[in-house]
Amino acid sequence: MTAKHLQDTTTLQGGIQMPWFGLGVFKVEEGAELVQAVKSAIKHGYRSIDTAAVYDNEKGVGQGIHEAILENNISREDLFITSKVWNADLGYESTLAAYETSLNKLGLEYLDLYLIHWPVDGKYQDAWRALETLYKEGRVKAIGVSNFQIHHIEDLMKTATIKPMVNQVELHPQLTQTELRDFCKTQGIQIEAWSPLMQGQLLDHPVLQEIAAKHNKSIAQVILRWDLQHGIVTIPKSTKEHRIIENAAIFDFELSSDDIARIDALNQNLRVGPDPDNFDF
């Protein structure tokens, strides 16, 4: 079912509700701009915030969360907060320690979702065992992976006792990840898109311009709507309040099957981020 509202959720394995739409903070530096972006998002109805240890901004994200809770009269339980363990900390004990570090920086007692950031060969199995421990102890509500290809997930499942609940990957109209999406769907793993707007590289594409004009929407809004209609959780990044509002104004229109087919056809298997199989860690 396509999300009808900014706070609509998908149900992950284990029963946790994850918002379809959230705010990403990749490469947003610590400081007032970051805190304000998080506060603006929550003020305008966002309930999901996605960060990572390697972004080096968990402290500011936490400050924004705490200030937004006070200013908007909402509770921590209303929010869905994600972070990720970095490659240097993959391992059983080191992942458990990294989780504590992230919690301390964020000033939170638990995370809603904790992800292995990249599939570093020979290391993610022990890290996954740590995530399973955190999950079984109730320290984290859901666990998952990021940037995992099909073969990484299959390899992980040889030793895992809990299946990943989410796989967050680079996904946009020029990298539609159809095979991976189909695989994850059969496994009950929710796909989540990072860099859904291809870091702005699609914002003058003629096909997208035409579809956007037809719906009287921006290209960004069309792409984010395309995500939702494909059942993809999406977390666009912005620090500007007007853009944060605009990105979320996608629940009052629907793309036709023809629109979706035309956007699907833009795929070129083109990445703006690293290839998980050829990433120099």
Automatic annotation (TrEMBL):
Keywords of the record: Oxidoreductase
Domain NADP-dependent oxidoreductase: 32-267
GO molecular function: oxidoreductase activity
Chain positions recorded as substrate binding sites: H117
Gene3D superfamilies: NADP-dependent oxidoreductase domain
Active-site positions on this chain: Y55 (proton donor)
Marked site: Lowers pKa of active site Tyr: K84
PANTHER family: 2,5-DIKETO-D-GLUCONIC ACID REDUCTASE
Family, as annotated: Belongs to the aldo/keto reductase family.
Protein name listed in UniProt: Aldo/keto reductase
The species this protein was found in: Paenibacillus anaericanus
Lineage: Bacteria, Bacillati, Bacillota, Bacilli, Bacillales
